[in-house]
């Protein structure tokens, strides 16, 4: 059943089309990145055989105790927004409270079914905020073949569906996840763990055999435990190894580089074991050593010769997997409890035979013997039988495209459009995800992501790798599309109408502190309800929070244009009250900020973008912020008909002139200018106005501007001695020695008494802040 999200567009026939085969995690994230970044007309066909989109096999579970194997802090869907998943959890906590622990932190392991809802939400948000000429069609069907079509000007593909005919596409993405093969049909008493019927019709006292002892086995044990199963649970694999548990560790410094890594499987294994031994002698945990390899694992794998990769697969994979892919502590505790009670047995061995009758399944197992047990007599004694009611295959789904009997894979193989990886792990692909054909040439039509790239990348199935691949693949696809243009609408849009469309998701508010004539800006996204405050003032925190609550927003960030000398920032207080992160310009002398922003970096909240523009000169670390390319927050670099002074805090008149004329005045004339101060009650200007009318810059040379600024002879701001040291600590604290060094007697005047009260107040905030981290 096809489901279109928008009405028919008269220009749709002129849109490029990308078909994504597979609507699980990988395919969905490719679609999300296309929706968020495409600029030309585009039709996205997201094809998934299951009714549920975005969840795939891993996140379709309804079992509450199936937890993510990675903590929440590392499970964001976006490489450049590390806190996105945590913010989503906080925002939706009231709806999800029945499935979540009372307190959620970056270290919390979340139920997988909740993560599936998160990915669905990410897709819905991207769909809701995409431009009208970017469309997504969800198709519930199975792809059985792909055929290359040669047109007069280019190559296209025809994608054949099992029930709904065929669709044409300019690009095709194989996002097949963990299931490229046709799964075997479940027998009466032998089921596949991927099947919804894996544990159906089991009585509580029935004995069960699980073949395989990895993560899939853990899922089955947890499902049985949640059902209050009383029967025995046997789990058997060749080596009888089960996943290790996660444990908090201090990071281990990198000890291996791509250049000095051994070029043999044995050499790598020995090197790793020696490093673990060394690390443990220094108080580190082995987990930290394994984790330190994560950034280079793919490159180390790729430089191994083919024979060494095969050797690693034969001998080391089971040991690598149970140490690399770990389980949450609470999951491990359930397994420990079942093992201790004797209900669960995990053993090493091979299945020799199994016979089914009306009483169940009789399974003969050859136990794994030690190397010293050579005699036939010893081996005979090591065989034993189990009588169970159900056998569940937990060995996972093969990714050997050389043997796959899936119609789609057979279709691609027969046309020489794909080349199965020689290791039996997925498909051969280029660095950008393009599939290699039978002659080893990268396709400009077919691409893949995730599990099919396992032979090429090894590490390719975890969320950090997949989200990076999805973003990069979306960029590759968009760059490779044929150029398509749209005709001008019958009724031309005015500039104001265009700006209104661009900023339809933008919430923008301007607030003023009358004492210092300081402006604070509230920026929010209507869809995600996330918000940013720029240049908050300590005395106005309650006002700002009231506005945030009135608009139903969640404060995520506090941004500073610079270290203020005329007021104390409210950022530290807002961080304390709402958990917002404090972001400051790069190289600013700020001690307690969460992050810094460099020139050109872009912060996103939903579909709203905030670009940092270095505009030093008023101070030696100053940023302006361009919001959605239309609203420019200039801080003290550019005022309405003026600019900030340059005679303290590392200011430099020439640097400011260059920043304003070369960076800000080159923006479009209609760009709105919102300064950090105005002492005459003015609220907004434009770049065009300021370039033409600003007396400091209009028709001024650089030398003239420097002369003007060097002869202003202004008094220092009245709050400078209080504000600068406080703002160096994000407003959380005014160091006593900073005040003392300024020669201030805190007991002389009323003004200085106010300073003393502010110091005491900020000292309390400072102590509370540090108490959170001790």
Q: What would your notes on this structure say?
A:
The chain is an alpha/beta fold and 774 residues long. The chain folds into four domains: 2-49 and 119-182 and 399-477, FAD/NAD(P)-binding domain (3-Layer(bba) Sandwich); 190-244 and 326-370 and 378-393, 3-Layer(bba) Sandwich (FAD/NAD(P)-binding domain), CATH 3.50.50.60; 265-324, no CATH class; 498-713, Ribonuclease Z/Hydroxyacylglutathione hydrolase-like (Metallo-beta-lactamase, Chain A, 4-Layer Sandwich), CATH 3.60.15.10. A seven-stranded mixed β-sheet has the order 1-4-3-2-8-17-16, covered by helices on one side. The chain has a seven-stranded mixed β-sheet with strand order 9-15-10-11-12-13-14. A six-stranded mixed β-sheet has the order 18-19-20-21-22-23, covered by helices on one side. The protein is elongated and about 95 Å long. InterPro entries: FAD/NAD-bd_sf, HpyO/CreE_NAD-binding, L-asp_N-monooxygenase_NS-form, Metallo-B-lactamas, POD-like_MBL-fold, RibonucZ/Hydroxyglut_hydro. This is Hydroxyacylglutathione hydrolase. Belongs to the metallo-beta-lactamase superfamily. Glyoxalase II family. GO terms for molecular function: hydroxyacylglutathione hydrolase activity; metal ion binding; sulfur dioxygenase activity.
């Amino acid at each position: 059943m096809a489901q279109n999200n928008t009405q028919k567009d008269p220009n749709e026939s002129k849109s490029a089309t990308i078909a994504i085969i597979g609507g699980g995690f990988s395919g969905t994230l490719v679609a999300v990145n296309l929706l968020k970044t495409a600029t030309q007309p585009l039709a996205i066909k997201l094809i998934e055989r299951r009714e549920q989109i975005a969840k795939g096999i891993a996140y379709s579970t309804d079992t509450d105790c199936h937890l993510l194997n990675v903590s929440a802090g590392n499970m964001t869907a976006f490489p450049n927004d590390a806190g996105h998943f945590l913010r989503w959890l906080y925002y939706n906590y009231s709806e999800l409270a029945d499935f979540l622990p009372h307190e959620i932190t970056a270290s919390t392991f979340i139920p997988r079914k909740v993560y599936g809802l998160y990915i669905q939400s990410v897709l819905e948000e991207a769909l809701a905020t995409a431009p009208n000429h970017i469309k997504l069609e969800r198709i519930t069907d199975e792809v059985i073949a792909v055929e290359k079509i040669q047109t007069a000007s280019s190559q296209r593909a025809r994608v054949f569906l099992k029930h709904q005919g065929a669709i044409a596409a300019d690009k095709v993405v194989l996002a097949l996840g963990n299931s490229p093969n046709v799964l075997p049909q479940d027998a009466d008493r032998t089921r596949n763990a991927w099947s919804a019927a894996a544990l159906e019709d089991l009585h509580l006292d029935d004995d069960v055999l699980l073949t395989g002892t990895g993560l899939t086995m853990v899922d089955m044990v947890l499902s049985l435990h949640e059902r209050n199963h009383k029967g025995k649970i046997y789990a058997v694999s060749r080596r009888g190894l089960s996943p290790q548990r996660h444990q908090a560790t201090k990071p281990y410094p990198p000890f291996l580089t791509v250049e000095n890594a051994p070029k043999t499987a044995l050499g790598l294994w020995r090197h790793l074991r020696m490093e673990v031994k060394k690390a443990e002698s220094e108080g580190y945990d082995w987990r930290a050593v394994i984790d330190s390899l994560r950034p280079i694992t793919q490159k180390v794998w790729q430089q191994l010769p083919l024979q060494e990769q095969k050797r690693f697969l034969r001998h080391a994979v089971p040991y690598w997997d149970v140490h690399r892919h770990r389980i949450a502590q609470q999951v491990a505790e359930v397994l420990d409890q079942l093992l201790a009670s004797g209900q669960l047995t995990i053993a090493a061995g091979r299945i020799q035979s199994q016979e089914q009758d009306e009483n169940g399944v009789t399974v003969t197992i050859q136990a794994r013997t030690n190397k010293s047990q050579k005699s036939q007599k010893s081996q005979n004694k090591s065989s034993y039988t189990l009588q169970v009611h159900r056998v569940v295959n937990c060995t996972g789904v093969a990714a050997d495209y050389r043997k796959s009997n899936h119609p789609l894979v057979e279709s691609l193989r027969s046309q020489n459009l794909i080349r199965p990886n020689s290791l039996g792990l997925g498909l051969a692909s280029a660095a950008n995800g393009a599939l290699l054909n039978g002659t080893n040439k990268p396709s400009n039509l077919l691409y893949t992501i995730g599990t099919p790239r396992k032979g090429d990348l090894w590490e390719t199935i975890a969320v950090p790798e997949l989200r990076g691949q999805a973003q990069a693949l979306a960029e590759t696809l968009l760059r490779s599309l044929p150029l398509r243009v749209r005709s001008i609408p019958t009724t031309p849009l005015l500039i104001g109408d265009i700006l209104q469309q661009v900023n339809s998701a933008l919430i923008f508010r301007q607030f003023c502190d009358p004492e210092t004539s300081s402006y604070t800006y509230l920026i929010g996204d209507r869809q995600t309800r996330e918000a940013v405050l720029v240049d908050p003032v300590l005395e106005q925190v309650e006002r700002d929070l009231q506005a945030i609550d009135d608009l139903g927003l969640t404060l995520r960030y506090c941004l500073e244009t610079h270290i203020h000398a005329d007021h104390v920032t409210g950022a530290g207080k807002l961080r304390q009250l709402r958990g917002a992160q404090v972001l400051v310009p790069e190289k600013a002398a700020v001690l307690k900020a969460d992050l810094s922003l460099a020139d050109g970096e872009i912060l996103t909240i939903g579909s709203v973008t905030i670009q940092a523009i270095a505009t030093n000169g008023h101070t030696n670390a100053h940023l302006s912020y361009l919001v959605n390319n239309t609203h420019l927050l200039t801080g003290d670099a550019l005022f309405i008909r003026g600019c900030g002074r340059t005679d303290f805090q590392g200011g430099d008149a020439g640097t400011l002139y260059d920043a304003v004329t070369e960076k800000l005045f080159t923006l479009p004339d209609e760009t709105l200018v919102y300064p950090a101060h105005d002492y005459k009650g003015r609220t907004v200007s434009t770049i065009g106005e300021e370039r033409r009318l600003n007396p400091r810059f209009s028709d001024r040379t650089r030398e003239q501007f420097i002369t003007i600024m060097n002869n202003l002879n202004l008094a220092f701001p009245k709050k400078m001695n209080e504000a600068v040291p406080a703002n160096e600590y994000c407003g959380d604290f005014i160091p006593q020695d900073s005040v003392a060094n300024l020669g201030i007697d805190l007991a002389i005047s009323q003004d200085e008494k106010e300073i003393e009260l502010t110091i005491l107040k900020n000292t309390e905030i400072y102590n509370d802040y540090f108490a959170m981290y001790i």
